[in-house]
Amino acid sequence: MIRIDSMIQPSNGGSVRTSNENPSSVFAQLLSEQVVKVTEADKSKQFPNANNQLPGSESAYTTHPRDELERLVSMSPSELIRYQILEQMGLTEEGLKELPFEERMKIEEKIQEQVERLMGEKASKKDTAAKVLP
Asked: Sign of dihedral through CA atoms 65, 67, 71, 74?
């Protein structure tokens, strides 16, 4: 008869556990190995665009996300709309400058139309609010 407790079991991390180890310590070891794996995976997913250049920036984005937030908050409404449109298109200001002239002008025209449309909506909402609230 073979006793399962007496067998040596390999762990996922490559280390070997024997049956004389406390089951709770084995669980704790497995748990800590998984935590390390998940933490490493999260770190790589947390800042996937850390080296990409952002619109309006001269250098690569390598700062804290709070700095990016401050930069976005300091933008005018039209700059923010432009940034969002370029981001949706998968472009940066630098990438836009590198496009052929005709293609860049088409994109600039779309951006201008969108900015005018959105800014016009905001202005009309303010006018409506001013009329409702004397």
From this structure: positive
Domain limits, the chain: 9-46, 65-132
Q: Could you list the pLDDT tens digit for every one of the 134 residues in the chain?
A: 555 554 445 545 555 455 556 667 777 787 778 777 777 766 666 555 544 444 454 444 566 888 888 888 898 888 888 989 999 999 988 999 999 999 999 999 999 999 889 888 776 666 655 555 55
Q: How far apart are CA 54 and CA 56, in angstroms?
A: 6
DSSP 61: -
pTM: 0.43
